[in-house]
Design goal:
Layout: H1 21-33, E1 39-40, E2 46-47, E3 51-54, H2 59-64, H3 74-86, E4 90-95, E5 99-104, H4 107-117
Antiparallel strand pairs: 1-2, 3-5, 4-5
Helix pairs in contact: 1-3
């Protein structure tokens, strides 16, 4: 899927991993690439939201695409994954000679907290302005036509 959006929790800016921009960027890329709905990988393996099945041999292409010359090296990404795992932000469950299942820790709570903090009418700072007879953002009684 190449459309839609992903929620990046604000706490990441205060987390120690943010002191290493390349590692923080890898975390953001992981949030972009993990499953957002349940899926399947190989026979009998279900990949839940917040998870991604991958092989270390193809991790660079999986995160950054085939032709991205500016992407970090495969070895750098593997180091980033190990740092993210040591920080408790992800878990890695390797199936030898098969694949590795990556899980973003607290994926569901990050997603639900973000959803509950945004009102259905817009952004947290937005104000609902009645549209009947007024221009959005203008006080009631202000003319909405061009002849003021």
């Amino acid at each position: 899927m190449t459309t839609g959006f992903v929620k990046i929790p604000r706490w990441i800016t205060e987390h120690p991993v943010s002191s290493e921009p390349a590692v923080a960027w890898t975390y953001i890329m992981l949030r972009l690439k993990v499953n957002w709905k349940p899926g399947h990988f190989k026979i009998g393996t279900t990949v839940q939201p917040g998870q991604m099945a991958f092989s270390y041999a193809r991790i660079r292409e999986r995160l950054y695409g085939e032709e991205n010359e500016k992407a970090p090296s495969k070895n750098a990404i593997i180091r980033h994954l190990k740092k993210l795992e040591a920080c408790g932000l992800i878990t890695l469950d390797s199936k030898p000679n098969q694949f590795t299942m990556l899980t973003i820790v607290d994926w569901e709570s990050d997603e639900s907290e973000a959803e509950s903090s945004v009102p259905k009418t817009g952004t947290p700072d937005s104000k609902v302005v009645p549209k009947t007879g007024t221009r959005a953002g203008t006080p009631t009684g202000t003319p909405t036509g061009t002849d003021r």
